[in-house]
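Allow me, if you will, to draw on your knowledge of protein folds for a short while. The matter concerns a single protein, recorded as an amino acid sequence and a row of backbone structure tokens. Kindly check, if you would, that the fold set down in the tokens agrees with what the sequence suggests. You will find the record immediately after this paragraph.
***
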Amino acid sequence: MTEGEIPETAPDVDPDMTVDNRGTGCASGIARVQRALEDVAAGAILRVRSTDRRAKTEYAQLAAQTDHELLAIETDRNGLLRKEYTTYLEIGGK
């Protein structure tokens, strides 16, 4: 899935868990997501909030390299210069 193919609208489901990575770099953000993945069951929806501009590529790569499904990545502008990204992943079988 390329960045242009990633849905930009949140799925109509309530997330089972949220990881708030706003204000952290992508490397530590991915580590937090990987720890969270240990605590959620297959079929659960994980929401990841981030301010790192690489979120669109990093979380798409994570989904492509695992059996998790990337449902959407929303982009919102918060203030003049800051963007926030909200990623939704459906957790695959473990």
Summary: The two ends are 22 Å apart (CA to CA). DSSP finds two helices and four strands in the chain. Residues 17-91 form a domain with the Translation Initiation Factor IF3 fold (CATH 3.30.110.40).
